[in-house]
Amino acid sequence: MKDLESMSLKVENGKLFVLDQQMLPHQEDWIESKTPEEMSKIILDLKTRGAPLIGVSAVLSLALYAEKEPHPEKIMAKAELLRSSRPTAVNLMNAIDRVLEVGQKTQWDTLEITKEAENIFEEDVELCEKMATIGSQLIKPNENVLTHCNTGGLATVGRGTALGVISKAYENQKGIHVYVDETRPLLQGGRLTTWELESLGIPYTLICDNMAGQLMSVGKIDRIFVGADRIAANGDFANKIGTYSLAVNAKFHKVPFYVVAPFTTFDKNCPNGKEIPIEQREPDEVRGVKGSFGKVVWSPKNAETYNPAFDVTPESLVSGYVLDKGLFKASELSKAFEN
Ligand code: MRU
């Protein structure tokens, strides 16, 4: 496999490395993933995360495995393991399907499998650029934009989806300012989006998730951009828990609300949001926090919790979908994603 490099995933001399996102922003630890088993655990633990990034991480791991163990049954078993690491992000399933399809078509030629995994990496970089160019045109000079979770270079191997749009607008001298939702329970906004915005020099203000509605009520938010983990055929979409409340608030306060996603996030076989599988996670993530800052448990030790990683936002709350092919409405999605 050739060398590949991104903000949090790289291949060097045939070895695959992941930047441990659970330790950001205070520590930058690169860990090697030697097997699909290790990669599956890394994905489950959100050391690597973000829908496009986990798709790319999984197929690089699978291709490196295939190079060493070129047996179809073994490769398919590891593919199933990787696929089961996280159920909601359809990019993971789509990327694995593509690599397996190439395997089947080429009598499991490992050079071809590796080439497809490399293509998926390079394609993601291009898709991010396209979305950024299209979405950044929606932002007017000096606007305050709000975003949720982390959708930048730490969620893709390119410049990101929603955060890629925002960074492009900044590059284009729009003079923007970003409100960042902290994104409980795992703080992808507070730890990761802030880290990316600092390194890009983009002005931002970190807020607790429950402050977004108040900011909208006083007219402080001009536009909202979020990513997606799976877009159903009718436009309903799953994204980080808290996205739905934002969208409801945005509708009430008439703040334009955009979803930014590449075609790899579209699930044409899923008719609507009710059919999207939602990952439920461990209670301890809600009972406290842990990371490079230490570990705190603030609730009674065995407090009952509810911890869905994602929620579903109905298409009726979305102002527009910024895709790699252009800006679309929900009713136009199936056509937009046809090829
Ligand atoms: O649980 P995470 O951190 O993987 O969730 C990430 C998100 O919800 C992102 O918004 C989504 O993957 C799109 S980012 C390109």
Characterization of this structure:
- With 339 residues, the chain is α/β, with parallel strands linked by helices.
- The chain has eleven helices and 17 strands.
- The strands form four sheets. It has a seven-stranded mixed sheet with strand order 7-6-5-8-11-16-17, with helices on both faces. A four-stranded antiparallel sheet has the order 1-2-3-4.
- Helix 2 packs antiparallel against helix 5 and helix 3 runs antiparallel to helix 4.
- The protein is globular, with a radius of gyration of 19 Å.
- The two termini are 28 Å apart.
- The mean pLDDT is 97.
- The site of 5-S-methyl-1-O-phosphono-5-thio-D-ribulose (MRU) has 18 residues, from helix 2 and strand 10.
